[in-house]
Amino acid sequence: MPPKKLSYMLWHLLVLILALGIPLVILPAKNEMQPDYFNPARITFTLIQIGAFYLNVYYFFPRFLLKGQAWAYLWRILTVCAGILLLQVPLELWFPGETPRALSNVIIIKFFASLMIIGAGTGYAYIEKMIRDQRLQQEELKTELSFLRSQVSPHFMFNTLNSMVALARKRSDKLEPALIELSNLMHYMLYESDQEKVSLSKEITYLQSYIDLQTLRFGHQVQIVTSMQCPPEERFIEPMLLIPLIENAFKHGIGLIEDPEINITLNIDGNCVSLEVRNKYNLYTREVKDKVAGIGLNNLVRRLKLLYPGRHEILAEKKGHWFNASLKIQLQ
């Protein structure tokens, strides 16, 4: 039996035990020396309460209360309580105890007992709804994250293969080592990026492989300055969250730019990861965007909101001939 189904059955079993036990405990016995727990009237009342409990949970609550019809919900609950008493009064008269009790006291006690048990059903329904909504939200989150991750790899490969094409056109002897670096990147993307989290040291190695690949492509055409700190203690991060800023710098920081330069700084302070990427850009050229432009950064922003809500900060600004992008993530 699946664990979820088993836990669901155990939860209902607990509810039934409580529903059976509450009336038996709170209602006064006719004979204090020999409590009449197995009195037919009391047992019938308990079974009716179980029916009322689930009627509230699976019909009244979703049909009226969840739809904002509080008054319609309330008068139906009161009607059910009154109906229970109408059924119970003949049973109390039909099965008298050894010591007669005032019927009015029985009616009052059982009315409030009915309200309490049905009220417990309302609380149970709220809890069940919260758990169900939370599970649905988690499933939707996993689905969206899976979709966003599926976008990252093709987009990254599209840009990286352009680097290979450029080297092939030049018939460069750097093509072979570039392909080796590309194989390292693909190995990481295939076997590591599908995991929920990877070690930060592996992510840094991945970033360095990408930078080495771009260095082979552009050579002395661009000045690349990197400073990436390895974590003193192992930390874990969702894969491929840091690469978009670096990829963006190489995509837009090289071209019709005088003395292109890219600076990459990665610092780790406790659980805080800080990445700063600066690249020169041309103020006087207007870039023509293709259909896939912006996918990487938009994807990054959305993933950060889902994975690190309130625990990340991403900034991008232009200062003179420099474009500055920074990302801070507070790891758990």
Secondary structure blueprint with pairings:
Blueprint: H1 3-26, H2 40-65, H3 70-94, H4 103-169, H5 175-191, E1 198-199, H6 200-218, E2 223-228, E3 236-237, H7 243-252, E4 261-269, E5 272-280, H8 295-307, E6 312-319, E7 322-330
Parallel strand pairs: 2-4
Antiparallel strand pairs: 1-3, 4-5, 5-7, 6-7
Account of the protein in words:
It is a single chain. The protein is α+β, with helices and mostly antiparallel strands and 332 residues long. 61% of the residues lie in helices and 14% in strands. The chain has eight helices and seven strands; from the N terminus they run αααααβαββαββαββ. It has helices spanning 3-26, 40-65, 70-94, 103-169, 175-191, 200-218, 243-252, 295-307, and strands at residues 198-199, 223-228, 236-237, 261-269, 272-280, 312-319, 322-330. A five-stranded mixed β-sheet has the order 2-4-5-7-6, with helices on one face. A hairpin with a 2-residue loop joins strand 6 and strand 7. Helix 2 crosses helix 4. The two termini are 34 Å apart. Mean pLDDT is 76; it is low at 29-34.
